[in-house]
């Protein structure tokens, strides 16, 4: 697994995820629920990209990461759409 030095903080657009979870079209709390299940299957330090069009994910995902000890890496909102790509590193 890849470890980045703390000297270089990754921009979300530079992140290459180990897995992608498509939650487009489902509302809160389903994206968080699905993220929790998916993260369980992944190895520590792997990165999950969660795709969602539920604006609540902007607040929900950082809060979930804080609660579960996983690392919130940030998000990208696709221009001209309601779609968010959120990045989480399993700890």
Protein traits:
91 residues, alpha+beta, 4-stranded mixed β-sheet, 2 helices, 4 strands, globular
Rg from Cα: 12 Å
Query: In what range is the share of β-strand residues?
Result: 25-35%
Please list the strands of the largest sheet in the order they lie side by side: 1-2-4-3
Task: Please provide the ordered H/E string of secondary-structure elements.
Answer: EHEHEE
State the helix count.
2
What gross morphology would you assign?
Answer: globular
Characterize the main sheet: 4 strands, mixed
Kindly report how far apart the N and C termini lie: 12 Å
**Helix content estimate:** 25-40%
- What's the pLDDT, averaged over the residues? 90
**Helix-strand makeup class:** alpha+beta
Number of strands: 4
Low-confidence spans: none
Quickly describe the structure.
26% of the residues lie in helices and 25% in strands. It is an alpha+beta fold.
Task: Give an account of the 3D structure.
The chain has 91 residues and is an alpha+beta fold. It is built from 2 helices and 4 strands, in the order βαβαββ. It has a 4-stranded mixed beta sheet with strand order 1-2-4-3, covered by helices on one side. The radius of gyration is 12 Å and the shape is globular. The two termini are 12 Å apart. The relative contact order is 0.24. The model has no long low-confidence stretch (mean pLDDT 90).
List the helices and strands and how they pair.
Elements lengths: L18 E4 L7 H12 L5 E6 L4 H12 L2 E7 L6 E6 L2
Parallel strand pairs: 1-2
Antiparallel strand pairs: 2-4, 3-4
């Amino acid at each position: 697994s890849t470890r980045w030095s703390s000297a270089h903080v990754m921009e979300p657009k530079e992140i290459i995820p180990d897995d992608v979870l498509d939650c487009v079209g489902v509302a809160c709390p389903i994206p968080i629920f699905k993220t929790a299940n998916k993260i369980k299957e992944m190895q520590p330090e792997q990165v999950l990209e969660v795709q969602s069009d539920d604006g609540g994910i902007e607040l929900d995902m950082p809060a979930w990461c804080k609660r579960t000890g996983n690392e919130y890496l940030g998000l990208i909102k696709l221009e001209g759409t309601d779609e968010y790509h959120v990045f989480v590193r399993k700890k």
